[in-house]
Batch of 4 targets.
Target 1
Amino acid sequence: MDLLGISLALFGAALATALAGIGSAIGIQVAGTSAAGVMTEDPDKFASCLILQALPGTQGIYGLLITFFVLNKLGLLGGGGAVAINWNQGLQIFAACMPVALVGWISAIHQGKTSAASIQMIAKKPEAMGKAIILPAMVETYAVLALLTSILMLMGVQV
Amino acid sequence: MSYVYAVSRLRGMENHFLDASFFARLIDSPTLEDALKSLSETSYSRWLGGADGAFDRAIDEEMIDVCKELSQFVPDQELITIFKMPHDFHNVKVLLKSLFRVRGGDLEGRRHELLSRLGSIPLEELITALESEEYAFLPWNLGDIIKRCWLLWEQAKNPQHVELLLDHHLFASMLKLAESLDVPAVVAWVRNKIDAENLRSLVRLQRMNYTAMDGEPFFHFGGNLRPDDVARLLNEPVETWGNLLSHTDIGSAFEAMGDRSDLRAALSDVSRALDEHLIRVLESSKYATDAPEYILLFLLNKEAEAQALRIALVSVANDLDREFTRRLLSHVR
């Protein structure tokens, strides 16, 4: 068995979850800090703040999804034994993980900042909740595009 | 605590600001009792009670409480200190003038009722320091300046010289503190504050027919405008000041003056325009989620609210012309 191939693939899968997860954690922290500030003055805004705080968390889920895809492709789920892949196939899987890992990491941080701004917006104008959700959701678009790219690339890799 | 938290919390606190419609209702109150009833529905209610005239104390208490609350979550306390510094210097002036009177033989000369509790130095400690001449714990090199104030007083017995020395030191200390904070907007605000003070002095000195040469010592260093340039305006006709200052941002405040020849009336308009300009300097932080200068902007807006409230209540208490009061408070948003 070519261990370099499977190592590269697993490294890519690990980065997909790790980088996107780190980004989400930072994004949620920024939005959560803002939510705590607003809720100190107005605890009734908990529901609105929670929705906005949760938005940067999706990138971490996308990263996990891609990791499952990779593990499934490698036959590491279900106990059936690993599929043999060469270093070239391993590198392809590694590359396929990168869109969700990198875009997920960066976009989650920026989505967190946008969510923080939206939370500050509903602190003053609670009636603008709809608009407040749309603004950070625009950042989400690029995380979704990265997820689709990673899925399509993974589907294209022959093992 | 982070600035994201602080700014978010302040945006929540801003919802308790009194708005233009409240002030309109307050001014239209037939009696002070009715006005205080309206005020009792606001955050000021905690401090109301006692005699009708106690509203002044309630306004002070609210301001002190807001500063205390902010100090619990603002990451850099110096931002609050920079706001409080003028109150500390005001207290030093009051205490020094009291001591000048007492040591001059007027044993009833202490005017401690004029002291502001909004300063950053605890009042009791400040009083003890000045009375006992133990200045070691005083910040911003105040001890040395107070010693110089005593020398000046002994030489000329002119309280104006003492005030001027303290004002020069106040602005120099504010600028030094702002520069140490490394927040460009706060430095810009202090520089504009110095300019604003110089321009207020300019109008006052013009009223007293000072020339550029006599007036120059009254202007402070550290602003965007050089003191000698401001002093030179004293030799120019008032109508040309707007044009001469048009290349500066702060010069727009003189548009409020127009071609009015009544300098006393113009001073209040210019003064208000300068206050608004100072708030505008910091308003760039209005849309930032984590701008440190937002703390200062919040405090200035709260101070403006307190000032407007005081004007409105004094007007109602003394049954002044409501239209005049409305004009005075036309800037309230």
Target 2
Amino acid sequence: MGVYVLRRLLYAVPILIGVNLLTFVLFFVVNAPDDMARMQLGEKRVTPEAVQLWKQAHGYDKPLLFNATTTGIAQFTDTIFFDKSVRLFAFQFGASDDGRNIGADIAQRMWPSLAIALPVLIVGLAVNISVALGLALLRATYVDIGSVVVLVALLSISGLFYIIGGQFVLSKLLHLAPISGYDTGLNALKFLVLPVLIGVISGIGAGTRWYRTLFLEEISKDYVRTARAKGLSETRVLVRHVLGNALIPILTGVVVVLPLLFMGSLLTESFFGIPGLGSYTIDAISNQDFAIVRSMVFLGAVLYILGLILTDFSYALVDPRIRLQ
Amino acid sequence: MPLIPVILWTDALVFVLIALALGFGIYAAHHEHLRAPWRRVLRSPVGMVTLLVLGGYALIGVFDTVHVRLKLETSASTAPDAPAQYAPDVMSLLDLALNDLRTQQEKTYSAPFATHLFVKEAIEQPDGSLNRAYSRLQFGGRNLHDADAERAADIATRTLIGALKGLIAWAFVSAGWLWWLARRRGESLTRVAAEVRAGQTALPWRTALITLGVLFLLGFIAAELAASYHIFGTDKVGEDVFYQTLKSVRTGLLIGTLTTLVMLPAALLLGIAAGYFRGWVDDLIQYLYTTLNAIPGVLLIAAAILMLQVYMTNHADEFTSVVERADLRLLFLCLILGVTSWTGLCRLLRGEALKLREVEYVQAALALGVGHFTILTRHILPNVMHIVLMTLVLDFSGLVLAEAVLSYVNIGVDPTMNSWGNMINSARLELAREPVVWWSLAAAFSFMFILVLAANLFADVVRDAFDPRLRTVH
């Protein structure tokens, strides 16, 4: 087990290096820091001095890969590549373009993101699985066929519509919840209800349809026929046997997104004014803050790989046929 | 010639796509094993209806893809043999067809079918005093003298006239269709008509003709009404929302199809190579797509679009027109969306190639000394094409929805380009107004919903028809 963990972790290293190199090329080679400075300073005719000053203030005034002006190891460490890219491996995100500490911001903002994303995931799972199980029980009846059409219609609606429509109907017309905002501690609850509700509703279409397919696939297997032949009731077959076995793909699908929950949802957070990582990213994109976008790309990749590793473990935990070697 | 054609980058790719589709269609028509699944698609009423709806969208999109520049009027002072001057703005055939809608701008918001502006304006009275009132629209219902009294009757008459025109056109098309069916089968027209009416034909022609009838009715009524009203109202700067919605069709279709198309060569090449050659080639390709997959899609798109913006601001002089710049940005967006979505297809192709490699006929070809290239093109490639097709169809709806989200985050298509995402983005704050300005959002969401719903239902039918494994499950 220990060896396996180590090997999986080591396997993640080249991928992270790849992500890092890719972002470096994207942010510093495709466009030189000079271009970035001119864009940020915004004016058509920017003096070279102003560009120089901006680069100095943000630490972009070093050579890209190799610094010939110093000696020894500093030739490699006193460069943009080391400062902006290599340091990410130690989670030193540096300062954003307006001078704030990105690492501290992320540590503070990931909790509101989680406060939305985790309830959406859990409630959504419960709702989707129960509805899908019900449809599997009623399979090939008019209820099932009609529901599938409704599900396809639900998943064809833009996520933006759910948010805009939900905000409009529930907050503006019915005054059931505040339109947007956030508070600390328990006071946050009333701000969380609406985004969580809308998050769950917008996920019903795709989620339920997917779980229904999983259940139906499982139902056509031999062990289900055996269970029925033993004289078990259909409900018991579904809940005890089908649900148990279908939980394996469901679980692994959930585990892979668990770490990414910290990243939050771009749309929900920006519409509801939640100070999480999603709205952080959106603000960075609209302010063209390259340092933050770069950090979030790296963080996202780390969390994704973490999700992959966790998936492998969860497979081994729930499915006795799989052993980690 | 009064106009010269202009081919933008995305136009060229659309033409390539159409050529590919036609080529594949002709090829498939001559091969029974390729024809069979498509016949299954058409036999399903849902498949037939959604195909016709998608066809309607595609027609609008294609009309909007043929771009031209109009010849300028020559004034008397220029020499008669002077080279012709062409207008700088690029227009599509759709623009020309909807010229009235495009040019008839009001001052600001007006509700659907309104005859007056949505907001009060200071109007100067004959005696010089100012009076705040809803002023008459310049174009909406301009043929009416007494707007309030005549409007309802006028709308009703126009709807009736539109419906009548639509019915007549539909009758002609259906008659032609039935005649063609009868000729092909060598039966009498009355008999074929009776069969179609009873729904006894192998392909659901009755459903098809009814769908066509509904589309014709809606189209003709909309055309008749749009001639003198803003049927979806006007937006903040007074532009007709119906026109914007129709123009957005092309953007949605392009994002949905070109994204898969532009990344297809890479996904095919790498996916098949990884599965077929295995070993270090497989390791390398797997590493490549795991790395790309590791970056959350939105962030990769954001990073790439930010970099594109930096490039475009610093090289502003390389783009001759706004349309050209918006077009290149659209193409780039397709590319970068493709980079984030090709990995799924690549993984599927790899798995399929791994399986196909061990199949007897490939092993036999290997044993007989057939080269790798021939095996790949003759044996592997044709047997993975159904995966490519299904990916193209299944990804479409997701990509159309993604466009709206990305445009909302400002990393989608160019802000000057008509797209449902841009419409939603610019209209979403208007829900906070009192009374509510809802029509831009409603128009964009409903057009997008119909397209995505049709695409999703069609994708289900296609998947059922092409995937033999799924057929046994049901």
Target 3
Amino acid sequence: MAWLDSLSPQTQFVFFTLLKIGCVLGLLLTLVAYAVLAERKVSALIQDRVGPNRVNLPLIGSIPFLGQFLTKLGFWHPLVDGVKSFIKEDFTPGHVRKIYFWLAPAISLVPAFLVIAVIPFGSTLGAQKMVIADLNVGILYTFGIVSLGVYGVVLAGYAANSKFPFLGGIRASAQMISYEIAMGMSVIPVFLVVGHLNLGKIIEHQAQNGWNVLPIFGGGFSAQTLLLVPCGLVSFVIFFISALAETNRLPFDMAESESELVSGYHTEYSSMKFGMFFIGEYANMFAGAAMMTTLFFGGWTLPFFGLDVAPVAGEWWKGLLHIGIFMGKMLGFMFTFMWIRWMLPRFRYDQLMDLGWRRMIPLALANIILTAGVLALTNR
Amino acid sequence: MALPDILFYLFAFLTLLFGVLVVANPFSRNPVTSAMFLVLTICAMAGLFVLLNAFFLAAVQILVYAGAVMVLFLFVIMLLDLKEEQRRKINLFGIVTGTGAVLGLGFLLTRTIWGGDLEQAANPRVIGDTKALGLELFTKGQFLLPFEIVSVLLLVAMVGVILLSKKELK
Amino acid sequence: MIVKRNALTWFERLYLPAIIGGLKVTTRHFLNTLTTKTPVTQQYPEEPTRVLPGYRGAPYLVRDQDGATKCVSCQLCEFVCPPKAIRITPPGPTGKPADRTNAEKMPEEFEINMLRCIFCGLCQEVCPEEAIFLKSDFSLTGLARSEMIYDKDKLLALGGTHPGIQKWKHKLDEAKEQETFPVKV
């Protein structure tokens, strides 16, 4: 490790950033693949059936107990799905607009990964902070990138040059920009309470004063904390619903409602391009779950066992534990996303837009005014 | 050449390039292509804002301008199904007035930039984080009244559009 | 008729009780399938499919209780088959005599092309001798098209036995029943 110290600080910074990017991307792509499997398994268990349980790799399947257990769990299905995505025929229909056809899956995929760059997924490991880019306008950057993700859907619908995908694309992107507004406005009370836009500092504030969703742990009871409880809860609920709508998940998935609009805006796509849309959808879900964990549920901290401060020099296992806590919370949110899918019927499109514009936005605005009022009156 | 200089030249070149491509792209005469190049111009401009230490402005530029306004532009262009532009015949009057207008504008710009203080403009003296921007807009500075008037102006524009596009109630 | 829809009470209008009810249902299903209840999935190649009686599988020829072919080569199934999957070669004047003593002839060659068969069951309906039945096989595979044209021996082997029309035995049984019905005073 001596050669690391011999490099200049800039080179060290570049090296560690590249290392972090590599690890995060690798982990995220693996998690996305297994999220597809988890969705199929969870959906199956809720519907009284078993999910995928067939893929049996030749060597590993013959390990006595573990091999069969992994097969029953469907553990190798994402591997097989990935191979299938690559070897399927990837054709371009004759009637599409070629440039946008090629561009749309990429534009749909990239913003999801870019959002993960600002999220602190741990405290520190050694001397490195566990966040790729510690921006001072972290949350604004996130919302900006999320709003760029709309272009993928719009261009996908437009490129296909045929009625149903176009309608699906327009509807999906209109839904996304409507709920973006509610999402942005619902997070403003969090900044009013914390005072910073930096995600690391939001987590520190939550470690000291209790989680933003229910700020009564940690800081102890006071009039301000009690009055802020409904604000935090309403904020979280609006953010959760908007995140569901942003990623086009049920109950808001009218745009790609699989039985009604053929396949929505990604009808004309096959093999890897469709795979990229799929990965983009699940990566967006992960980004939304990570945002919720960071903003409302305390990120990598737990309010007991002294886990709410960054570890001192010698305790590297604490850094790993923090990463584990963050992953646990994020996976809990992912499970909730999959769970809600089978619980609620789908919203009709006009009901969806009505909910977004006429209920969520006024509620978020009222929440901002209420939080500001509480903070002003209890003299912060 | 330090990295900020390289980045500045890169972003400036990209902004100018994409700006030119909005009106004069050789790829297709589709209005959607122009709109997409405009989005790229806005993103490059956001990069320039970051180099000037205005992080909040860069993020809000992408959020509002590239992410919402341009998406709505795209909706209008796609839904109205504009045909590709016909080539217009070039006439002398148009060329003369066009060139005159461009020259006049260019003269004004050059005069302003060269006459002013270039050094001070390129090195921002305010460490403008979000809090300072907020204080400047809302309390300390003299921008509170213009800010509120601009928001009322936007409201008037929205109300006007809704009124004009409402169907007649029988 | 007019269906009266009651207005929602304010508690129901919150939608939260409905959502919590939905949560309870899904949780119950999830935990049940995870721990106690067996899922409804049938693991197909390992568990054979149980077909119900009346299922229209692949058509096979049957033998009667003495091991003789019931088919008398009347060719009615060949003419009724919609995709013309059955092809029968009748014996002619110089063919082999029938297996049964009370049958006039039996087919010299009886082929069903399983790739053409649509499993409609018309051949079973039309056969006057109850000689062809649609059994319960639904997945037939072969490595060549010629392999999927089943000839008479294969069809008879796959068909099994089905008792013939035993007219005199049935008349005897009816006569015995007559002795006890109507009830003698």
Target 4
Amino acid sequence: MASRAGAGTTPTVKRALSPRGMLGENRPTLWLAPLLAVVTLFYLYPAFEVLRYSVTNASLLDPDYEYTLETFTRVLSDPVLYKVIRTTAIFVIASIVLQLLLGLMIAVAVNRASKRRLPGMVFMRSLVLSAWVMPGVVIGIVWAIILNDADYGLANLLLGAVGLGSVQWLATPNTALMSVIIANVWRGTAFSMILQYAGLQSIPEELYEAAEVDGAGALQSFWYITLPQLRPILMINIILITISTLNTFDMILPLTGGGPGQATEVLALRTYNVIFQNFSLAGGAVLAVVMLAIAMALTLIYQRLLRSEGSL
Amino acid sequence: MKRWAAGPARVAIVLLVVFAVVGCGGGGGVLTLDRIGREDAPKTMTLQLNNSYTHQSSTPTWADGFERLFTKFAEDHPDWKLELKIVPDEQSTQAQARLLEQARAGRAPDCANVDSFVVAQFIEQDALQPMDEYFDQEEIDGLFPFVKDVVVGDDGKLYAYWWATDLRLLYRRSDLVPEAPRTWDELIRAAQEAEQKDSKVDGYLFNGGRWEGTVFDNLAHFWSQGGELVDGQGKPIFHEGQNREYMLNTMEFLKEAVDSGASPERVATIKDYSEFESAAQAGTVAMFQGGDFQYPPLEESLPPEEFKKWEVSFIPTMNQGDLQRTGTGGWTMGAFSDDPEKVEMCAEFTKEVYVGEGNQVTGQLPTNPEIFEQEKKFQDPIYDTFREGLKEGEARPGVPVYPEISNQLQIAIGTVLTGEATPEEALDEAADASMAAYEQQSN
């Protein structure tokens, strides 16, 4: 019996260990190995290092450090952190809402125009996308020129030309945050539009035709067909906008530097400041972990929402 | 294209690309994109430089000047090749933090540009090698006092050579403000009068945005009262005793400038010296606190009759008799290698490329009054004013906590200017955060 059992399993084991077995359709170990290696080396290891540094008191000024939870306590009990989180929340929520709405509006317009074969749509899409491919630093500098509070700032020049007075775009805490949101929305709307445009293209034309036959108007078609069909894309879009906006600091640095005062200092910028001004590697790592936790929590919430939408 | 012509055309394109790459630095000349000296030179030194101070500078005259100096240096030292690591100018803050980390791990370049305000940190961390035996004693003794305070360690050794500096001054349009204001009150009054004379102008502009320039420029007001940011151990004391009063006076003056209308609210957003030049070109500013380095661009950008209106003077103080202090910054060269031959080569490179010659190329002020007399560039009478101003120069304290003090004071000035906090509240918050950073760094 035993010898029969042994005789029965040996070929299976041999097959599993053979190159053919490992590369077989149901055993993709070897195929995945390079990907696993890349993910481990370039994603998991750095993430692990950030987690490790967050439970130390490491500084850029001293090679020695100890493992401690004190940095966590110190950073999390700093009242400034909650002010920064509030600013970040406003920045992220406003960016999500505006990027979704504007992206959807442009996507619907481009989709309609494409269906009617209007000329210049490829140019239009490329033009909108050019904002997205621009580096954040460049966008920050460009918007700093546009929103310069002086009378010779571009936006104020335009307002002056139509007889309106200059606006203090960056000089007060509220307008500065609004200006940073405008710049971020300008950058992110293009990507949002592309995603939603792709979603619109995948909606079967028959649905609209059936709705038309049933006497539905444009608004009803949009509400009962377009939006429900777009929900999965909208959810993915929200996740991507959230993550990219949470990580934004390259654009804010040249635009406001986080000021006036701390009015536009978001979590990512604070992390940068803690590491490069305060030389606190551990403090920066704690903030990075906080950002990671927020991004993961939001992603899980969105995913759950997406699943429940799917089940409907 | 015909098939018979396609092959040779491809070869020609490939050759063109190869020649272009070789011409741009891939070849065997004495100066390439990443090397000074011949490729086959027997001795090697690694060298980290800011982009501005190389032949790749974005300012064409600087690029040409350094190309000439680097080429001459390579020809004069045929046994050496200097392998270049060039740091983009906008990354210089991170690069300095990274350099310190590399030095601690023994991986720093042999020789590098070191920001003058972090030199003390590098000395404290034993990252820099003494260079004094490669400089004449007169070259060291002749340095401005504020320079020696930074680059000479407690043991009397020279740990870096500070070759380029700058200072802050008050620029004014003499048609609107004929007399240089001496005190803060006179400055505010003069600004208001200028605005009455020409409704288009802002009376007085200064850096008030979230960046280092805001603190660095306005520290002159604090220093002129006798204020000190840190004590001998590097502990923040700007919020204690007399210093507290001096710092509050400074913040109140800045707030008063905005509240009185002498300065527009938008000073809270100014985080770039070029803002002042733009305002001068647009004819919308009567006075601004800027750097000496803005004088040549102003001269170039303004029509001669407009430029003639501009004059510079020292920064006004709270009281008539106070010293007119000014913030000074700039760049040094430091050696990190343990190899004495490389330390010597670093000193030679500094002397032959940057000291005097480099000042001539960039127009950045020398750190030794004698060079003002020797170099042709500095014969314009305006440089006499700059040289005089440097006598009251004050460098930022080169202590590890300074960047955080600066960060906190930037926030404090911003919140005071926008009315979010009173000077007292802003100062208390800045003090708490700076002390927390200090204690954390001391542990």
